Each structure stands twice: as structure tokens, then as C-alpha cells.
Amino acid sequence: MLEEARCQKLNDRISKLLEKYNISENFSYSTQEKDGVYQCVIKYQVEKTWKSLWVSTGYKAEKGNLRKAKKTAEDIASIFKQKITTKNEEKQNKQKQNINFLDFQRLVELNTTNYDPNKTTRADWDFYEYMEYWLYKIIKHSVERDTFDGYEKIVTRRTRNYFTMKEHKKAVKEITANDLDDFYNYLRESGLKNATIDHYNDNISSAFNFLLKKKEVRFNPTEMIEPIVVEIKEVPTYTREEIKILFDILKNDPIRLPTIFDGYYGLRRSEIIGLRIDVFDFENNNFVINHVAIQCNGNQYKEKVYFKDKTKSKKGCRVFPLFEDVKEAVLEKIQRIEQCKKVFGNSYNHKYDGYLCVHDNGDLIQPNYFTKRFKKIIDRNGLKKITPHGLRHSIATLLHLENVDVRDLQDWLGHESITSTNRYTRSDYKKQVTTRKCCL
After folding, report:
1. DSSP secondary structure string, 64-123?
2. What is the pLDDT of residues 333-376, one digit of tens each?
3. What DSSP character marks residue 292?
4. Counting Cβ atoms within 10 Å, is residue 389 exposed (0-12), middle (13-18) or buried (19+)?
5. CA 55/CA 12 separation, integer angstroms
6. What is the pTM (predicted TM-score) of this model?
7. d(CA 23, CA 60)
8. Element of type H or E holding 410
């Protein structure tokens, strides 16, 4: 053991070093000769730099003293280690003491399960950066492309614009119900309706629920906001006579056949454009909905339309009767397609062979084209404002007036949930419909 005076002197030297540097507990020592005396050489680390501390063992470099010198060097190294350990513990205790009650209360108020400042979880990320991560790493590969397009539009536009503003930038753990209420008010001031804002809320809620499952946050702030009251928008519908007038106006128009399927059956836009010739059974007079065409609105897609042998819901795959007027229109279209192939020759687009809703040159009648062309026809002829989706509501109206059971109406429309069907049966039908016939 070192003498008390030497221990005190060594402690003073080490203390001065600790006042000057943050020394790591990672060090090494050895016994070396210098100026005829055995020295304890301590190699210690300051950040990424190694430094040396030379301390005399008190033994001359003579025969028989090396073992004693090594024992003393071991004692010196032990004192060095103890001093550093004590200093680091004092430092940590001081940091803990600096966290007063208000600081602790602030930590508790944050939406995180992690209170260690030296560790980071996704709850510590910038809120918008996390929303992008949720969009592209979690959601993208678990939903259909058209659904993802809607999510992407919500996250990368107004959500990004708002939460990247300096005054609104926050970590995930700092987002409160009040922050979300402020954001939704901002969306209202931008002109968005509650029905759209509800989609924003759904996305944010889903993003927080993912963190809840991973136990990285303690609560979902969307569950604490004021309920978003979604306005029930009355969808304009047509009577039987108004639909027939529309058919007459479209007599030679490329969207006449899509409109016929919309006006007779109330099919979805994707179901109409996805119709293939081989689904029609002209002997038994029926056809099947089992294939759809989806419009891609994202700029990252080369193909603006993609197809899938999967309907919007399980109930979307269904069989319809082939009414005589529709059968005649389909057969005329098939005949016209064959004639156009001969007329256009090599310039005919065979990519969509087998599909029914195509232009004369073989190009597909894209879903967005159908909607825009439909609106143009309505405006040009001064007809009551309606959309292709409004014709779907019109069919639901006519069927409902004939006292069709809501479960049968659900099957006809291809709704997964009866709740969706009920939204189609809220109008004052007696004011909208002048006929009791459900079939055109």
C-alpha cells in the first residue's frame, strides 16, 4: 500500500486531471523504467485521444525491485480507477438532482414510454418525419395502390405543409389533442369539409396505433379530440325518365356504354371499365363482376390504370341479369370493336383486347376520362347536375322505392357493410322519383 502522503499527492494530481478532462473509465497501465526509477505509466482516454500519466513507484531500477514496483503500480492504478469511478458517479447524481419536480412532471406529460435521455425511440422523432416513415415503410405494402394514393396525398400535402412550419414542428411525443384540433381547424380554413378532415384523422390515428402496439407511446391523442361531425351530403339522383333522356343524348358518344351499365345496374366506375367480353353469357343472359380497373393518381406510376381480379370487397364479386336493352348495346359494341380493328389496321391498340369499354382505336376508356366526359355532357346539355356515382345512388333509390329488402340491395350494390348501403337510402325518395318501376 502507498504511504498516506503519497496517496494524497496522487489523489490531488488525479483530481486536477478530472477537473480539466472528462476521462473515460477505459484505461490501461504498465511498469516502465525512466531516469533509473520504475514508473507506473497510465494510459487514459479523453474523448478519442489517448494521454499518459507517469507516477513514480519509489523503487530504483535495480535487481530485485521490479516485482515490488509492479505491486505499487497496481496500487496506483487502483487509486486512479477509484477516483474516476467516484467522479463519474458524482456527476450522474448531480444530473439527476438537477431534474426538479417540474422537469419530471414535463417528462410524464410527454406521450412516450421512454424516459431515458440517452435512448431514442420513434416517439422522439419529428412528427412529420414519422408520418412519412409510417406512410412508406408501414402502410405502403399493406394496402391497395389506389388506397395508398389517397394516403400519400393526405400525408405529403397539407400535413407536411402544416407540421413542417417552424411554429408547428414537434416531436411525436409532444403532439397533443389540442395540436390536432388546431391542425383540423387549419384544414377547415383551407376549405376542406369534415368528411375529408376525418380521413386525415384516420391516418394520424393509425400512425399512433402502430406506436401503441410497439409500446413506444402511452396514448393515442386522436381519441381525445372533439368528435369530427361528418356532414351527410345529399347526393343528387335521377328519375327513370331523366336517365332515359341521358341515354338518348349519349347515343353516339364513347361513354354511352359505360353510362348504360351505370344507369341500369349502379356499378362502380372501376367495375364498368374492368368489364371484359368473356364475362357475358348471352345464352343465360347474365354477366359477372370479377375484375376491376383502378385509376392511379400518383405521379410515380407509369401506367395510369391497373387491373386486378379482385373487387373492392368480398361482396363485390357478383352476377347480374343481362337486360335486353343492355344485351343489345353490348353486342353492338362487340361488333363495332371488330370493325374498328379492320379500319385502324396496324394503328389499332391491341393492348386492351378483350375489354368492352374501349375507344374506336382500341385505347381503354380510362375511369377519369369517363368522369370528366360525363360532366362535360351534363353541362353542355343543361341537365341536372349529377355524377357517375350519382347514377349509382339513383339505382339504389329506384330499388328502394320498390321495397327491395336492404340486404338484397346490399348484395346488388356490392357493399361489404350494411352501413354503407344505409347511406344510399336516406333521401326523400318520393320527391325524387316519379315512377314505381325499378327497372329501366
Report:
1. T-HHHHHHHHHHHHHHHHHHHHHHHHHHHHHHHHH--HHHHHHHHHSS-S---TT---GG
2. 999 999 999 999 999 999 999 999 999 999 999 999 999 999 99
3. E
4. middle
5. 12
6. 0.63
7. 30
8. helix 406-413
